[in-house]
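Section 3.1: Structural characterization of target chains.
Under the original work plan, the team committed to producing a structural model for every single-chain target entering the pipeline before any wet-lab resources were allocated. The record below documents one such target. The sequence was received from the expression subgroup and is listed exactly as submitted; it comprises 459 residues.
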Amino acid sequence: MTTSGGAKPGSADHGPDLLPEMEHFVWLVRKIKSIPLLRRLLRNEGIHLPDKLADKMDKAKGILPPTVRKALYPLIAEASVVMCQRLERIAERIEILGDEYGKQAVLSLLDENDESDAAVFGRYCDPHGRALYLYLEQEYPEKHRPGGRRFDHAERVQVMNRQWKSETYSSHYRGPAGATPTLDAAMMEGLKDRILLLYPKASRDDMLIEQFSRRDLGPPRLPDEVDDEAAASGVLDTLTVTFNGTEIHYPKVEHGEEIAHDDLAALSIRYSREPTTGALSVFSEDRENRRDLAAIFRDVVLASGSEIEDLPMIEFDLAAFASPDMLGKLVSERIDGIDRIEILQIKVAHPFRQRTADEANDREIIQELASTLTLCRDRRDARDIYAVARQDYRISDLSSYVVAQVKLVMRIGNQAHRKAHNVTVQLTAPNGLNDQGKTKSDSKRVMAQLERIGLVHQF
């Protein structure tokens, strides 16, 4: 990223300033409540804590206070590149296990009759500590413990549980290539100005803006093993804007009666950008405003005065999935690192028009409607999705339908830092891709595979 002076701190612990390339590790240190497990991780990774800092961490009640985190980050920054990469990858996998499917998977693997498991199981509201515990038990088991592969198993269970649910997805755009400017005070104020126009109920003072950069999307390598071209292609910049902007309503028992509460909860906007290609993904639960959010990034961060059309939408053309010929393509067009691709689910729509009466305005109108059908095969079914459509749904030809959504299962091959594993890939027409539940390296490999198959188009 290009440099720009006068940056105003965006967080209490200065995480992005002290560890600009360790977004997930900063997240883990902020969220985890099981401090002894965090210390155990650092100890096993070869990081020695000074006695004074260790005492402060031990005295923390719940999460570490900002002052302690701020003292820890420089110590991590002094570690080797390979060690920092390892910590970042560990934290990233733990963060991914933090959704509802991951939490359930982790809990299902804890044994309440086991003394060590029971101690972790009993810690209230610390799902990330439980996931870290499984990782430590797997990679660094205590002498009297059996070890096992429960963390890997939790990841597999999470993926299987996700296969049957519709997932949240990011919207994708293509902008100009080039380095992403570094966040400074003027940029932060500009972002706040534009965000407040979209979300007027948000508080300017409670808006948190942070920027990180990830430069190791491939296997861990030493600095002298990476040339300039490889380093540039492995960069992914992220910028998050978090503020209280989502209305929530919940009941709570207080003083012997049930009280209804109305409040604003945190809403997060996440931008991810590849400088070498200009590819930009925007994630927010508020899908209707994503295009406006992309325009904010273009105007404020990239400082471009062009029209929004200069950030064209990346669309996924799913029409080819109407033909069984796609099965052969998923075999012949596989890229390196992808061992297998299976079609788990196809959702089709049948558009039609309906004439109806608009009683309020005393007129007839034509409605554009669509009936939908989801073709789904059991993951253990040896038949392909098209055989399932013919035999179970009595549909021999999908060409008369519009393919609205496809769910794939991709088998990622063995990597230097991780064993072979499955990822689910949900494509939703026109531009939805579920890239939130994957590591950054997996997301990049998935997008490269989709481009090879010819599913990605730019408009």
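The first strand starts at residue 170 and ends at 174.
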